[in-house]
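__Protein archive entry__

___
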Amino acid sequence: MTPEHFVGLFQDSLQLILIMVSAIVLPGLLVGLIVAIFQAATSINEQTLSFLPRLIVTLLALMFFGHWMTRLLMEYFFRLIEEMPQLLY
């Protein structure tokens, strides 16, 4: 296995992780921003008001993107299995 091949696999895995985490975190971040703006405009300082919508949106994002993320992970895993002989020699 050459260092270039290892760096390519590592780069692909980091890119996959970044895409999957972004799909979960960004919707919660946007909802948190909207709730924070609402709280600032109305002077409501309730912590559960910001936590609960983010939690719900994060769970909905996991439900919505779960199949897609599983497919991405399976494709990456199958590609690693196919490249296993090249990795060992």
